[in-house]
Amino acid sequence: MRLPIMAGNWKMNLDHVEANGLVQKLAWTLKDMKHDAKRSEVVVLPPFTDLRTVQTLIEGDKLPIGFGAQDVSTHESGAYTGEVSAGMLAKLNCQYVVVGHSERRQYHNETDAIVREKVSKVLSAGMIPIVCVGEGLDIRKEGAQVPYTLEQVQGSLRGLPGEDIAKVVIAYEPVWAIGTGEVATPEDAQEVCGAIRRFIAEERHIDVADAVRIQYGGSVKGDNVAEIMAMPDVDGCLVGGASLKAEEFAKIAMFY
Ligand code: PEP
């Protein structure tokens, strides 16, 4: 069985002091609501500058919350000003790294080839990449969301052994639904998430497809999460705005 994963992408929000406050509040809220860690995994993805603080809090207080980063360098070390390597993130005990978020693809020209390099660096460092894919509004209007997204999946994971693909989390995030309040219908989410799983089964092996966790992302909130999570190929959500509020994110984690 695939453990659902609810990951909060904070984007460029919250300094390390605010991060401390939000993680503490999230942990209390989850405890109060009697969240069952066997029914959903809760992960926060703060900015780089917050990671050490979040690590210290989560590990020190043994909180049932995972954490990771929002991006990583394609390089291992050296003269790459402003970059952060997978090794550095692994040293902070990050478990996850978001790769190829649509904002990185759009504002930093990240191609599938770059995403693929990042995925392989993250896996080599012993962490799990959350690989983002998804179509823009123009592609959706043409009805080409499935082939478009499968091409991104193929381009982002090409060459990886099946055992590595099985560990990866894929986040299907239709770009038109990110931060817009416009949520894909559960059927829209299922159409593409199901197609991704079938594609992996065909290209690799049914066992790999069965193991891989596929998230939906795009304006997920406490009051729409249950219907999305009811879809058979949706194994969690990548959550932006709603992950900045402890109660709302806890409600999402408790979709079951
Ligand atoms: C995201 O940042 O990946 C995201 C899905 O954002 P939001 O939930 O705010 O749409």
From TrEMBL:
Alphabetically ordered keywords of this record: Cytoplasm, Gluconeogenesis, Glycolysis, Isomerase
Q: Which GO terms describe its molecular function?
A: triose-phosphate isomerase activity
Top-level taxon of the source organism: Bacteria
Q: What class of enzyme is it?
A: isomerase
Q: Which Pfam families did the record assign?
A: TIM
Q: Which InterPro entries match?
A: Aldolase_TIM, TIM_sf, TrioseP_Isoase_bac/euk, Triosephosphate_isomerase, Triosephosphate_isomerase_AS
- Provide the active-site residues from the annotation: 101 (electrophile), 173 (proton acceptor)
Provide the binding site for substrate. Answer: 9-11, 179, 219, 240-241
EC number(s) in its UniProt entry?
5.3.1.1
Its main subcellular localisation, reduced to a broad class, is: cytoplasm
Briefly state the protein's biological role: Involved in the gluconeogenesis. Catalyzes stereospecifically the conversion of dihydroxyacetone phosphate (DHAP) to D-glyceraldehyde-3-phosphate (G3P).
PANTHER family recorded for this chain? TRIOSEPHOSPHATE ISOMERASE (PTHR21139)
Family according to the record: Belongs to the triosephosphate isomerase family.
Can you name this protein? Triosephosphate isomerase
Q: Native species of this protein? A: Ammonicoccus fulvus
